[in-house]
User: What shape does this take?
Amino acid sequence: MSRTYSIRDLADEFDITTRTIRFYETEGMLNPQREGQTRIYTPQDRVTLKLILRGKRLGLSLAESRELIGMYRPGLEPEANRPQLEKLLAVIEQRRSHLRQQLHDIERMMQDLDDAELKASEALAALKGA
Amino acid sequence: MSRTYSIRDLADEFDITTRTIRFYETEGMLNPQREGQTRIYTPQDRVTLKLILRGKRLGLSLAESRELIGMYRPGLEPEANRPQLEKLLAVIEQRRSHLRQQLHDIERMMQDLDDAELKASEALAALKGA
DNA sequence: ACTCAGGTTTACGTTAACGTAAAGGTAACT
DNA sequence: AGTTACCTTTACGTTAACGTAAACCTGAGT
Assistant: This one.
């Protein structure tokens, strides 16, 4: 019922190359259906791709993204066993702490940029005045 | 007057290898003094290194960090010319927008992690109950 | 004199994440 | 039939940011 996407559809929407999408497939992150040779992507695939790219923007490796994305795949061993789940929680906590560190860095960086911008525009103003 | 640092001091403090520090030097980001062969680092150098690493945590390339750090070097052409300053402001604005995007991504990621954590601990609880 | 723990240069190796051809299939115009 | 516009696989190339190893110096301790 729900619509499907060509590889170009997704490449254009997310502003990446088709090569990139095929690469993610060889890395086992996507498994599109085939119509003959041609790849056909479901909305599910599209969501997965979106998650990969979001992770990428945050500096995660593909391997790391794969770990996190694994959790969003329903029906992939619903009765996951305890050790796996516990490891999962650990990963989550570690990731969260990483994000906190990033937030902190961003705050300080923003502050530094404020200072820099101030200095720069002051210097510009001084030049105009001269 | 102010103290100095050996390459090991800095490597230990920031938990990186000496190779990394030397690499940053060949990339023109550090210029320590020499005492014979041996490198001697000033507090200034230490700050520069700190900025490099902060940028790295945020996913900046060394080239990008170098651009930003250039602004913090006092006495390096105090009467910087207009085009340079204007480009600088542009870089800052672009960087700021990138950081905003990252903040957004982090928020959504955190939210997703919240959901995932909930699911995981629910699954764990269910297992314990069984 | 010897060792040893630091430092140094030089240079080749490595990994991730794709880029970039090359060579070819297929469906649809014209 | 020819060209256009997609898609495909295969495979070698590339860049950043270091790792790793070899071969060497050098001052401090024994």
Notes: Helices of chain B lie at 7-14, 18-26, 43-57, 62-70, 82-129. The interface with chain A takes residues 54-55, 57-59, 68, 71-72, 80-82, 85-86, 88-89, 92, 95-96, 99, 101-103, 105-106, 108-110, 112-113, 116-117, 119-121, 123-124, 127 of chain B (CB under 8 Å).
